[in-house]
Every structure is written in structure tokens, then in C-alpha cells.
Design brief:
This protein has about 300 residues and is α/β, with parallel strands linked by helices. The chain is built from 13 helices and 7 strands. The protein has 2 domains: about 180 residues, Vaccinia Virus protein VP39 (Rossmann fold); about 100 residues, Putative methyltransferase TM0872, insert domain (DNA polymerase, domain 1, Orthogonal Bundle), CATH 1.10.150.
Length: about 300
């Protein structure tokens, strides 16, 4: 297991995307190991401010002792309320790294990875009630199938859901090894690891309500960003990337750009990079987990 909490992907492109003003107010909505936050602080003067969000108690231990830094232990879906509380109702930039920290995948007790046995937990916020075991044991077959299909993009989602429901009637799920043993025979041998990763991704997204939280945060970003403020988002799978792409393009999640009477586009954002930014070969070699990262940047009009 790694002792590294997290290595941020595309660190310098993220900073360039934020276009940091020395005395500006910035928000890191996914603090994690603090890599992005430390880099932001290094580019601010004594009048600048950084507010960082993370719902995970483990991330709180990485707090930065700096008077310009404020840590909020909360889900970023509450962005607007906490910014108001901390007297930062309008900000110059928001950064979101939607990747799961190395720490979560590498800590056996957190239950995020099929590489280890442990409790089926997967909660980003340990104060939350719903666990992965709850999802597997309590959701209907149809609900499970939808979770696996929409969040894991698994073509055999119905079959896997059926097998899980049949198995839990005899023995409820509690450990990772139990789940792996039940579903492994139904995953193609040629892409078994990839499909297992997708299954775990789907359960994690459901446990943490990740898509709802992302949409809520993006919607609020429009309210709190100053004109000219930057929204910088790193995504790691097609579901969240599609949401971010559509929102930056059109200000909504369908991606449909409205037009005024004269046919002019009414998008609230100007795209900074029309083409998505991805890590180069050198970064992928140094940090293989960055290989699926996609960076999108938009400026509020």
C-alpha cells in the first residue's frame, strides 16, 4: 500500500487554467491530500484567500497551517452556503479534481478497491449512513441493474444484479471478497479487471451520490464565480466528463445552447480549451493513475 495520499494530475495546467490573481479568492472543492491547494497558495500574496472543501475526516488531517487557508469539512454540494458563511460569496476561481484519492483506493478499511478484502463501505464521508453493503443488500434487482448500467456502463448489468440478489438471499454481503467471488464468473475473462473496476465505480458513485453532488456544485459555481472567474474541472470517467462538458458548453446538463432573438449564443461560459487537456506520456509514466484524467476549463462571462 502507498503512503502517498494523492498525486494531483495535470497540476500546472490546472494552475494555468485558474489564471490566479495574487490577491484573489479561490476554492478547491476537492482538497484531498492538498496538492492543488498548496500550489494555489504558493501563487497568492498575503491578501489572497483559499477555501478548501472535503467531506472526508482523513483529508482534514492534511490541513495547511496558513492564515490565508480555510478548510470546510463538507461535501461540495453545499458550496454556496459555506462560502457565504466564510464571507466569500463571490470568488475568482473554482477547482474540482473529481478523481478518487490514492489514499481511498489503498486503504483496506475504506472498501474502495477490489484488490483487497475488507468491509464493503465506500463512504467518502464516514458520517454518512449508506454503505456499499447497504446498496447490495437492500436495493431491488431493478435498482441495482440501473446503478451498474448507468454508473458503471456494464452491458451485463441485469445479469450481475440478478446474481447478487440471488446470492444475498442466502448470505448478505459484508466483505469485498464475497462480492468479487459472486460476480467474477459473470465478467468476461479478457476484461475482468476493467469490468470489476466499473462495478466498484458504480457502487461508489451510488453510495456517495456523486452525480447529484457534481450537478449541484456546478450549478452553484455559476452563482458564486465573478465575471471572468474560472471553473477548472478534472474528470476521470465519461459520465462526469459529459456532465461537465455540457455544463461548460451551455450552462445546463443537456448541452443545448440557447439563443437569443438574433441567434446569438446565450451560454454563461466561454470555453478556455475547446479540446480537452490530457496528461502527456511523461506524466503518465510518473503517475500511471493520471492516465484517464481530462481537464476542462471555462470562464464565466
Amino acid at each position: 500500500m502507498s503512503n502517498v495520499y494523492h498525486i494531483p494530475a495535470l497540476l500546472i495546467p490546472c494552475m494555468e487554467g485558474l489564471q490566479i490573481k495574487k490577491g484573489g479568492i479561490y476554492v478547491d472543492v476537492t482538497f484531498g491530500g492538498g496538492g492543488h491547494s498548496r500550489e494555489i497558495l504558493s501563487r497568492l500574496d498575503e491578501t489572497g484567500r483559499l477555501i478548501a472543501f472535503d467531506q472526508d475526516l482523513d483529508a482534514m488531517r492534511n490541513c495547511i497551517p496558513d492564515k490565508r487557508f480555510t478548510f470546510v469539512r463538507s461535501n461540495f454540494r453545499f458550496l454556496r452556503n459555506f462560502l457565504k458563511y466564510h464571507e466569500a460569496e463571490s470568488v475568482d476561481g473554482i477547482l474540482a479534481d473529481l478523481g478518487v484519492s490514492f489514499h481511498h483506493f489503498d486503504e483496506v478499511d475504506r472498501g474502495f478497491s477490489f484488490r483487497f478484502d475488507g468491509a464493503l463501505d465506500m463512504r467518502m464521508n464516514q458520517r454518512a449512513d449508506l454503505t456499499a453493503a447497504d446498496v447490495l443488500n437492500e436495493y431491488s434487482e431493478e435498482q441495482l441493474s440501473d446503478v451498474f448500467y448507468y454508473y458503471g456502463e456494464l452491458n451485463n448489468a441485469k445479469k450481475i444484479a440478478s446474481v447478487i440478489v440471488r446470492s444475498r438471499a442466502t448470505k448478505p454481503f459484508s466483505q469485498i471478497a464475497d462480492l468479487v467471488a459472486v460476480v467474477e464468473p459473470y465478467l468476461g475473462k479478457d476484461k475482468q479487471k476493467k469490468d470489476m473496476a466499473r462495478l466498484f465505480q458504480a457502487i461508489r458513485i451510488e453510495v456517495n451520490h456523486e452525480m447529484d453532488a457534481l450537478k449541484s456544485m456546478l450549478t452553484q459555481s455559476l452563482e458564486v464565480l465573478k465575471p471572468g472567474g474560472r471553473l477548472v474541472v478534472l474528470t476521470y470517467h465519461s459520465l462526469e466528463d459529459r456532465i461537465v462538458k455540457n455544463f461548460m458548453k451551455a450552462g445546463n446538463f443537456d448541452g443545448k445552447v440557447e439563443q437569443d432573438f438574433f441567434g446569438n449564443r446565450k451560454s454563461p461560459f466561454k470555453l478556455v480549451n475547446n479540446k480537452v487537456i490530457v496528461p502527456n506520456d511523461e506524466e503518465i509514466e510518473a503517475n500511471p493513475r493520471s492516465r484517464s484524467a481530462k481537464l476542462r476549463i471555462a470562464e464565466k462571462i
